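does this look right to u?? iron/sulfur cluster version
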Amino acid sequence: MEGTKQVMVGSVAIGGGAPISIQSMTNTDTRDVDATVAQIHALEQAGCEIVRVAVLDMEAARCIQSIKQQIHIPIVADIHFDGMLAVAALEAGVDKLRINPGNLPARHLDALLGALRERPVPVRVGVNAGSLPKDLQSKYGISAEAMVQSALRHVCLLEDGGFDNCLISLKAPDVPMTVQAYRRMAQLTCYPLHVGITHASGTEVGLVKSAIGIGALLLDGIGDTIRVSLTGDPVQEIAAAKTILQAAGVRRFGIDYICCPTCGRCRMPIESLLVEVQCRLASITEPLTVAVMGCEVNGPEEARSADIGITGCTGTQGDSEGVLFCKGERVARYPLHELMERFEAMAFDLAKAMPD
Ligand code: SF4
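got this back:
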């Protein structure tokens, strides 16, 4: 977002007005290079822009070199408690670290700061509500303020060592607490913020929690990079992240669909039509707005306000027909079998005419 400091993770800018980037994390054993690379390729294909891997031991840290040679997006090492793993990851060419310096032995912190002077890649201080220091818990309880104070403490250790290429995250499974923590931190610092709801759960619940938490912050103008944490295959996180960013109006990834929820007035089989429309237009990457509406009550206005839209209506024989709209104009009324062909051809023409 505007106003935060910009850091570079490999070739991807975070903060300072750069597009809000999408991150994910592999769930393979990082020492299994082939499996990790395969999962990163799937993430890349889906649109992941930065990937994080867990580094549990020296072998995993060294594997980063081989993994990095085979992928196309920046790689982040996620490390806890052992600063020497971070030093090894830096030597292996990692693009960013996630580590909390306050959890390191003093000699590890010194070694890490020395290595960062040689290769000053960004460091994310990532505070989780589940692992707050005891003294902050006693003073503030498990709260937004405790998370903020904990993160500032970690950042101070880096700053005191002459390092300020930082990002901050403040994650909790509790959505209001997370939002409160980020709002407070945004008032206190200009470091870029990595935003997410941690341990959000499986797809259905996790997506709602993430959309509320990340979405609320994005609408406040807070957040420079996001990760949607969902249980299971991380590839699903990318579509979720794109949907949240697009719904918040901060990035576009191809078509934005407007579709009626259906009701008793519906004059078209909307559910199956939407699937068909999405299939037919799947290869369009231009930022079109497409409306698929069921009836003459609310349909025409929505279809008119989209780049292209269809709405159901009653035909002259009492049967179902569809009206095609393009750029605010009513084009014509067609029987349903003809509607799809006309609609598809016109959508591709519109996409082709859009500037790159
Ligand atoms: Fe019902 Fe028409 Fe609205 Fe669809 S557009 S929900 S059919 S009123």
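Residues 166 and 287 are 33 Å apart (CA to CA). idk if thats expected tbh
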